[in-house]
């Protein structure tokens, strides 16, 4: 397609902007550009067609099956957007006096009450802007807790090898060293290796449960107790809360802090670098270390309070309010019965799809799985030369988004599939049919798959070159 600059014609314009309704500001001469700003000159129809064409090149949940493992790419109900767009919510400003935004603070407190019930925590802050930001916040609270107890020798965070990559990165940002624990052949944490790794320098454990490979840790209570006995704290990565919400709570498993990926579990849009939300829940022992601006009800009004030993603010103002409204709407819509039903349906869909493919594809771990399962195409690659990437490209030709590739790193030629609870049996059956046909094609005509996709807007791209030599600006001929 043409870039918007390539659509440009000198002198062409449109009148989409309203009349100026604020005082005109004259830029001082010393701040003016020395060269005229080169903007595309296009008509209103051209602008509309340009963005429509761009939209048609993307693939989202509204376009088809989107089983991106460990990311829970589920449907976002439109009622969420309608509630976030109510004038009383959409029209507020973060600098308004607290007494003028009492409804917004009530949203935060209501969301806190429901999410602490779901997670088994005592308090929650909505200040972190995303999941990894929540990790960072939690680890800052860990560090403050140990410092307050004059236990500064604790400088190590234990992380299983199947963890999300952000876990060791977050630990490093806080100044902690990461101790990696290898998984057993069945994909679960090696409890004896964990026991041998803990000591007086253990600050805490970062664990995702169900794990990144879609398995529930059968020894979870023993795992968290080992850390507590060593004087450390337990952090629950909430990336995979979707299959257990309303069924079992991280707080009851022995975790002291949990972050929630609101965009994964509670149906708000994936930010893509934009408006995410990664609220942190904590137990009573960590309340004093929470970030600033914790809302509480004092007599007949909501106010912001500052915890006694706060780590300070981790973000400007108090989180992304519109995202919390959407999540709260989702929780209230599903209710006490709907939340666990969504979780059990997620587990059902994943196990059904895995069972329908297990006679052909090699499953890395024995079932049952939780919300996702991991296939290894290592045998297929050896026998046909077809890789996980080739299979993923073939899936694109079927009008479906491919699953996560080459993750987790502990599985060679991995494809990680997460159907989510919002997909129908008919959709999953169609996906199973496509996967099975691709498997047969790998053995009957491997060269065909190595050149896929054939029916997308563009053919196979050079991912390495795109990542290392991206073209990010338009080069004018003159």
TrEMBL record:
- Mark the residues carrying the PTM N6-(pyridoxal phosphate)lysine: 264
A Gene Ontology molecular-function term? Answer: glycine binding
Give start-end ranges for the coiled-coil region(s): none
Write down the chemical reaction(s) this protein catalyses.
Answer: N(6)-[(R)-lipoyl]-L-lysyl-[glycine-cleavage complex H protein] + glycine + H(+) = N(6)-[(R)-S(8)-aminomethyldihydrolipoyl]-L-lysyl-[glycine-cleavage complex H protein] + CO2
Every copy of the Glycine dehydrogenase C-terminal domain together lies at 343-441
Keywords carried by this UniProt record: Oxidoreductase, Pyridoxal phosphate
Q: Does the keyword Iron apply?
A: no
For this protein, the Enzyme Commission number is 1.4.4.2
Q: Name one GO cellular component term.
A: cytosol
Any one of the GO BP annotations = glycine decarboxylation via glycine cleavage system
Q: Which cofactor does it need?
A: pyridoxal 5'-phosphate
Glycine cleavage system P-protein N-terminal domain: from which residue to which, for each copy? 25-291
Q: What class of enzyme is it?
A: oxidoreductase
Q: Which InterPro entries match?
A: GcvPB, GDC-P_C, GDC-P_N, GDC_P, PyrdxlP-dep_Trfase, PyrdxlP-dep_Trfase_major, PyrdxlP-dep_Trfase_small
Function of the molecule = The glycine cleavage system catalyzes the degradation of glycine. The P protein binds the alpha-amino group of glycine through its pyridoxal phosphate cofactor; CO(2) is released and the remaining methylamine moiety is then transferred to the lipoamide cofactor of the H protein.
Q: Fill in the subunit field for this protein.
A: The glycine cleavage system is composed of four proteins: P, T, L and H. In this organism, the P 'protein' is a heterodimer of two subunits.
Q: Which family does it belong to?
A: Belongs to the GcvP family. C-terminal subunit subfamily.
- Matching PANTHER family, A to Z? GLYCINE DEHYDROGENASE (DECARBOXYLATING), MITOCHONDRIAL, GLYCINE DEHYDROGENASE, DECARBOXYLATING
Name the chain's protein: Probable glycine dehydrogenase (decarboxylating) subunit 2
Q: What is the source species?
A: Vagococcus allomyrinae
The gene for this chain is gcvPB
